[in-house]
Amino acid sequence: MEKIRNVFVWVFSRYPEEREKTSQTEKLIDSMRITSKCRFNASNRLSLRSKTSFFITTILSLGLILIPLLQNSGVKLNFTASVLNMLQIFLAVSVLIYSVTIGTARYDLRSRELDECGQKIKRLIRDVRTLNEKNPEQTKIDLDKINTEYNQVLKESENHSRSDYKLSKLEMTGDYNITGLKRLFLLFTALVQCYFPYLLPAIFLGAEIIFITDMLSITEILSPFLNAEIK
């Protein structure tokens, strides 16, 4: 019976979610630790967005260059000139809009700012721990000053997202006891929130690849709809 109860508790994560803190100093340190982890996760997320955006823009641009080259090469293509011209205009506008969006988003700069914020919080944590080990009573007195410095560091970068916080909770197993279905649901929602922005660029990239393979008669996915008269 006890085993069944333990399984039930694990599956539905009926444990206390957070580790109990014994002092205000420990609460502050734990708060800074989770925030630092969230900042690093946010930095990695934006860095990945930057690299992925550059890759997708490059591939879309290469596809835009490839189409007129194939038209002038004498290779038999499975689409009419009007369809190919339409696609070139569509790709050109898409690449332009996507490039402007990436430039406005400033993923690289934001990623660096978040990483620097995480590093500063880590240094602040080390300072608080060192001070607490030397003089715990003085640390309690200086909590307001430490909090002010902590808040000032937080203002130097944007806030992290909910997905960054969820992933941090899952990674910090020593601080958060999340198991079973609750852990699975938290992981699923965090990954959806993190990778959903890649959906539209992936659709554009996939559509371009399908169009080019259809154009070269490797596949026949779009050709029945875009160029039905060619048989």
UniProtKB/TrEMBL annotation:
It comes from the Bacteria. Residues 23-205 form the SMODS and SLOG-associating 2TM effector domain. Pfam families: SLATT_5 (PF18160). Keywords: Membrane, Transmembrane, Transmembrane helix. Signal peptide: none annotated. The chain crosses the membrane at residues 53-71, 83-102, 184-212. This is SMODS and SLOG-associating 2TM effector domain-containing protein.
